[in-house]
From TrEMBL:
One of its GO terms (cellular component) is P-body. InterPro entries: DEAD/DEAH_box_helicase_dom, Helicase_ATP-bd, Helicase_C-like, P-loop_NTPase, RNA-helicase_DEAD-box_CS, RNA_helicase_DEAD_Q_motif. Its EC number is 3.6.4.13. It comes from Fusarium zealandicum. Belongs to the DEAD box helicase family. DDX6/DHH1 subfamily. It is found in: Cytoplasm, P-body. Keywords: ATP-binding, Cytoplasm, Helicase, Hydrolase, mRNA processing, mRNA transport, Nucleotide-binding, RNA-binding, Translation regulation, Transport. PANTHER family: DEAD-BOX ATP-DEPENDENT RNA HELICASE 50. This is ATP-dependent RNA helicase DHH1.
Length: 567
């Protein structure tokens, strides 16, 4: 029997700051299950009966608790270049609060501003003041609207660096998301002296045991590994007052639920539990009823899909998909793209085809070794490569601002997977494009996803308006510059191309060749429509299926420099 998804009741109108705290008064005055003794031991203040949001003119507390006399400290900050791209109402429909209005420590504010944050998003406005009171939170908001900072900021505010205890546990479903979340904690809290540890499966348990001998305040990781550490009495969670689950719907699926239930037993009864996700199935409601105390419900999902993402589909026979993908590469102006397949085998096969077409490409899936996955994720995130082929491993929470195109090479089978996939583009209110390659067998899934999400996926036009997904000034996109010199392949790509050249993989190919794909390439040598990555084409083919190129026609038996490395 299929259960309908459950979600908190959406708020028809957002409360004003002055009205927010009285709504918590009844709860905070009757939280008999939440004694404040252990929180006092950790240096926390007891629960208050209201959230006091100071006016903007109020002084900002310094790192030592003393008020700041003025705002001269802001002038000393090393601020990044301002992101001038237009944003949608997904992140701009706020109540007008500033980060200073939450009375955060100055050292924390310094980290927030130096990370490029300017004003809180709607989910941050709703969640931060409530989380600071210690109340349980059940928050639902769209992908890419700032959910991670919505719980990391109050966590960093409440951490006492002088206490050498684990004070917060953040659970995530994937290793890549664990690395990303831990980096957010380190970036925002770099002036606080907070020690953050990330631990996931696929790495040596001994290294984690050694790291836990030193003070650790925040642990970010996947459930299985943390349960191992807690079960061996290596990770002491007995005085850990904050328990957070990001992508809670995935963590409360059948595969994770038993582990989550066991982990909760290691925490004190007066713990604070916070759940964040874009989708909430009935399993979340069951968990909330059993393990949370009158949670404060936040639901900002007036609609499921991001407003900045334009969605198209194209009916394509299976044997023509690679040919269609090649045409898309030649016609679209791609900054970075993520291409999804439904199986790990097809991920590697498609990555090989893309390199044969002459485009630089990474791939990632769950069967790869952890160090290889880490390297691919790091290099792609830093702009080393333009295209990434992956399985649903990277559908959860991965935030890469430069991705403006998502292509579903294999169409997903359910609305939840589709929603998380297309959410990799259009991050934080920016523009994005989602293109779905549909075959005859996918037509029913297309109809069901449109119905479940309440959206309409349009047929792809002959020409896609660039204003839907491309910004006039590419320099405004916050993408790190590659550190690789001209003619040098990144380590992740070298290793993957060595693996892809194995002949037995061609025999397993489920993606047939499409004749002379090269005729579909841009004649002017531009890469994915971007003139910054131009260069002549070499006639030879590299051993790894990577076509050599360069102004002098590099190629032959060796590999030419990737398009992304040319300037």
């Amino acid at each position: 029997m299929r259960h309908a998804p459950w979600s908190p009741s959406p708020s028809n109108s957002k409360p004003e700051p002055a009205q927010l705290l009285p709504r918590l008064q009844n709860h905070t005055s009757n939280t008999s299950r939440r004694p404040t003794t252990s929180l006092h031991d950790l240096g926390y203040a007891p629960h208050t009966s209201e959230i006091r949001i100071p006016p903007k003119a109020a002084s900002i507390p310094g790192s030592d608790g003393a008020p700041a006399a003025n705002e001269d400290w802001k002038k000393t900050l090393n601020l990044p270049a301002k992101d001038s791209r237009q944003q949608t109402e997904d992140v701009t429909n706020t109540k007008g609060l500033e980060f200073e209005d939450f009375a955060l420590k100055r050292d924390l504010l310094m980290g927030i501003f130096e990370a490029g944050f300017e004003k809180p998003s709607p989910i941050q406005e709703e969640a931060i003041p409530v989380a600071l009171t210690g109340r349980d939170i059940l928050a639902r908001a769209k992908n890419g609207t700032g959910k991670t900072a919505a719980f990391v900021i109050p966590v960093l505010e409440r951490i006492n660096p002088k206490v050498s205890k684990i004070q917060c546990l953040i659970l995530v479903p994937t290793r890549e998301l664990a690395m990303q979340t831990s980096q957010v904690c380190k970036t925002l809290g770099k002036h606080l002296g907070v020690n953050v540890m990330v631990t996931t499966g696929g790495t040596g348990l001994r290294d984690d045991i050694i790291r836990l001998q030193d003070p650790v305040h925040i642990v970010v990781g996947t459930p299985g590994r943390i349960l191992d550490l807690a079960g061996k009495n290596v990770a002491d969670l007995s005085e850990c007052p904050m328990f957070i689950m990001d992508e809670a719907d995935k963590l409360l699926s059948i595969e994770f639920t038993p582990v989550i239930e066991q982990l909760l037993q290691f925490h004190p009864r007066d713990r604070q539990v916070m759940l964040f996700s874009a989708t909430f199935p009935m399993s979340v409601k069951d968990f909330s009823d059993k393990n949370m105390t009158s949670p404060y419900e936040i639901n900002l999902m007036d609609e499921l899909t991001l407003r900045g993402i334009t969605q198209y589909y194209a009916f394509v026979e299976e044997k023509q998909k690679v040919h269609c993908l090649n045409t898309l590469f030649s016609k679209l102006q791609i900054n970075q793209s993520i291409i999804f397949c439904n199986s790990t085998n097809r991920v590697e096969l498609l990555a090989k085809k893309i390199t044969e077409l002459g485009y630089s490409c990474f791939y990632s899936h769950a069967k790869m070794q952890q160090h290889a996955r880490n390297r691919v994720f790091h290099d792609f995130r830093n702009g080393v490569c333009r295209n990434l082929v992956c399985s649903d491993l990277l559908t959860r929470g991965i935030d890469i601002q430069a991705v403006n195109v998502v292509i579903n090479f294999d169409f997903p089978k359910n609305a939840e997977t589709y929603l998380h996939r297309i959410g990799r583009s259009g991050r934080y209110g920016h523009l994005g494009l989602a293109i779905n390659l549909i075959n005859w067998e996918d037509r029913f899934n297309l109809y069901n996803i449109e119905r479940d999400l309440g959206t309409e996926i349009q047929p792809i036009p002959a020409s896609i308006d660039k204003s839907l997904y491309v910004y006039e000034n590419p320099d405004s996109i916050p993408r790190p510059i590659s550190n690789f010199q001209k003619g040098q392949l990144p380590a992740a790509q070298v290793q993957q191309q060595q693996q892809l050249q194995q002949p037995q993989q061609m025999q397993q190919a489920g993606l047939p060749q499409q004749g002379n794909w090269q005729s579909q390439q841009n004649q002017n040598g531009q890469h994915n429509g971007n003139p910054h990555f131009s260069g002549g084409r070499g006639r030879g083919r590299g051993r790894g299926g990577y076509r050599g190129r360069g102004g002098q026609g590099a190629g032959g038996r060796g590999r030419g420099p990737p398009r992304d490395a040319q300037t």
